[in-house]
Design brief:
64% of the residues lie in helices and 6% in strands. It is mostly helical. The chain has a three-stranded antiparallel sheet with strand order 1-3-2.
Length: 152
């Protein structure tokens, strides 16, 4: 890979631009790959939350966890939860708990495989140490500017 600037020049490049460009590239690629199998990124988030929690919780609990992802918001997450139910991937019990259907488990496996491929693609040529430093550096930028990430 050829970098855009020399090391001496990169030191003076704006983090705002490069973090935005990285965000745009990663999210665009992920959304396109998920669209190829017939889902959206927010629907994937719902499936992953429900699948990983063995009956994740109620619609409100899942929405509360996910609403901070990429500024999605509660209204959009309600629509995405509804969509996973309409697709037959998730059911909502009378007590409000969400769970995967058999079809949902199968589709979750397919989508998880796509996500694993995307992660491998993104991490090509990047060591775990470099990745860790990158995330810590980005979190420091967030902290230094008074921002917050979804997990704060």
């Amino acid at each position: 890979m050829e970098y855009s600037h020399s090391d001496a020049e990169l030191i003076h490049q704006p983090i705002g631009y490069w973090s935005w460009a990285a965000h745009k590239a990663v999210v665009t690629r992920a959304r396109a790959a998920l669209a190829e199998i017939g889902t959206t990124q927010p629907q994937w988030w719902v499936l992953a939350q429900v699948a990983r929690a063995d009956g994740a919780g109620t619609r409100d609990e899942v929405s509360r966890i996910l609403r901070g992802y990429l500024d999605t918001g509660p209204e959009a997450m309600t629509e995405e939860i509804d969509s996973t139910i309409a697709h037959g991937w998730v059911t909502e019990a009378p007590d409000g708990l969400l769970s995967l259907t058999e079809e949902g488990r199968a589709f979750y496996g397919k989508a998880a495989a796509v996500q694993a491929e995307l992660q491998a693609e993104r991490h090509a040529g990047i060591s775990d140490e470099e990745y860790l430093i990158t995330l810590k550096t980005l979190q420091r930028f967030i902290h230094n500017t008074g921002g917050s990430a979804w997990h704060h």
